[in-house]
Design goal:
about 250 residues, alpha/beta, TIM Barrel, eight-stranded parallel β-barrel, 11 helices, about 40% helix, globular, binds 2-phosphoglycolic acid
Length: about 250
């Protein structure tokens, strides 16, 4: 089954609604004709509605960067999957390493958020990644194996139909230090194998595995040439319409 490349910007805590609308207006003509791929931006909650409205008909998918797993309740400062969906989100990033590092997201929380996202038909982008010390001590596969198992706990094969995984080595995020295409491919192949064990061959074949960590217009093509790299999750280089468009059009 072909895996349509998914090229997503993760804006983190950048851009007001007005700034997001201006980005979309600039990106729209740059992306005209970019077929055979899915462009996407994960925006701050406060910009979701405006961005989704501005992006209508552009082919750019708009998503959120986090959700809470409950539908509603006394959870000050949190947003549910249904709320993100109603504001215009089509997808959601779950378990980004910054959430894990600064806000306490655990594999168990990610698995609960994953259930919430799927119940609202939000496409889940589940992030995994090892730290530099874990890589240096030779624990990369052990760490990632535990993360994927824990984050996808309770997920059925049917629920996994829209699942997207993002491999983001923590040491490559925002550091300018990209994993080499070969390093990323090695991990992607490992994760595809884990998906097979956990959810079967069909899910393993059809699930897109994105790479994230200092993806730029000048390295995206070599990453995308690897057989198990199906897209990118891009922070810094996705904040400007021109570099975002260059990344989306990696093979043009
Ligand atoms: P970066 O961030 O592209 O700025 O390294 C990637 C991410 O955190 O998703």
């Amino acid at each position: 089954m072909p895996r349509t490349p998914f090229l997503a910007g993760n804006w983190k805590m950048y851009k007001t609604g007005a700034e997001a609308v201006s980005f979309i207006e600039s990106a729209r003509p740059l992306l005209a004709g970019a077929t055979g791929r899915q462009a996407a931006v994960a925006v701050p909650f406060t910009a979701l509605a405006e961005t989704a409205k501005a992006a209508a008909g552009s082919g750019i998918l708009v998503g959120a960067q986090n959700i809470h797993w409950e539908k509603e309740g006394a959870y000050t400062g949190e947003i549910s999957a249904g709320m993100a969906k109603a504001a215009g989100a089509s997808f959601v990033i779950l378990g980004h390493s910054e959430r894990r590092q600064f806000f306490g997201d655990t594999d168990e929380w990610v698995s609960k958020k994953l259930q919430a996202a799927i119940s609202e038909s939000l496409i889940p982008v589940v992030c995994l990644g090892e730290s530099l010390s874990q890589r240096e001590s030779g624990d990369t596969f052990k760490v990632l194996g535990a993360q994927i198992k824990g984050s996808l706990a309770g997920l059925s094969e049917a629920q996994a139909a829209s699942l997207i995984i993002a491999y983001e080595p923590v040491w490559a995020i925002g550091t300018g230090k990209t994993a080499t295409a070969a390093q990323a491919q090695e991990v992607h192949a490992f994760l595809r194998g884990e998906l097979k064990t956990l959810l079967g061959a069909k899910t393993s074949d059809s699930t897109r595995i994105l790479y994230g960590g200092s993806v730029k217009p000048d390295n995206v093509k070599s990453l995308m040439a690897e057989p198990d790299i199906d897209g990118a999750l891009v922070g810094g280089a996705a904040l400007k319409p021109d570099s975002f468009a260059q990344i989306v059009k990696f093979d043009f």
